[in-house]
């Protein structure tokens, strides 16, 4: 990332409407990160040219321009903003909002680098296929537009350690192991499920639960959301512990509640606990090594 963007540290200041102006972008770039001017904060492409010139007077380090492409009935002249940035010698373009596909050739022809910011792995993969150089992903915790999937960005062990935790607590991942005493169908359902396949139930009763999206949890949500609201009594027969336990034992996925988290999106196999723990430790060591290398440059 530091080589690609020609910066000292892999820290990007994302585009921010009304905030991403020369004062901030130059300060971030001067501090070793990548500052970014937000194109649409400027009233027109000429004003963006002037803002780029102002920023350049405040830093001799590289900075980028954010192009936020939002669904709107009267779209701003994105192409003209982009031309203003590229003609002014800006190399890094942060795109966001929707697929940057139609702008990629123009940016590449100008020798530019595209960092596309999105909110879902599937969007990241299609942007990569379309030819962007880097992806940044905003999780559900991010400001701005966090997408429609409500997926948190932090489910990685090394990340937890780097943030100062001394260990991790895992549940769902251990369900999908050889030794977990539940039916193979349930384990396989966790392998097949993506991070979008959970439901939050019991919210109206202030006792929110995250469970696998299945016939029962969909039905609970339908009842909870019906006009006039619902009482716990209305869903009690669906959500009994006995039904959930029976589903885990019989492997009939839709027979009861199966508690499971968004980490299912990262579960792709059913290893033994030994294999799993060895792998987590190995992946964690590797991630920390890579992280340290990135910051020691
Ligand atoms: C005040 C503000 C305005 C923002 N405006 C935009 C924007 O216009 N375009 C964009 O792509 N992202 C926008 N964002 C999102 C940020 O670039 C960044 O992706 C996000 O804030 C990262 O998550 P964080 O807030 O947890 O750091 C905005 C964020 C903030 C705080």
What spatial form do the alpha-carbon principal axes imply?
Answer: elongated
Number of helices: 13
CATH architecture classification of the largest domain: Alpha-Beta Barrel
Low-confidence runs (pLDDT<50, min 5 residues)?
none
SSE pattern, N- to C-terminal: HHEHEHEHEHEHHHEEHHHH
- Order the strands across the largest sheet as they lie in space: 1-2-3-4-5
- Kindly state the percentage of residues in helix: 40-55%
Main sheet record: 5 strands, parallel
Bound molecules: flavin mononucleotide
Rg calc: 24 Å
Give average pLDDT, whole number.
92
Strand content: 5-15%
CATH class of the largest domain: Alpha Beta
- SS elements, strand count: 7
**Strand-pairing-aware structural class:** alpha/beta
Find the CATH superfamily of the largest domain.
Aldolase class I
The tally of domains stands at: 2
- What is the CATH third-level topology name of the largest domain? TIM Barrel
Distance N terminus to C terminus?
Answer: 11 Å
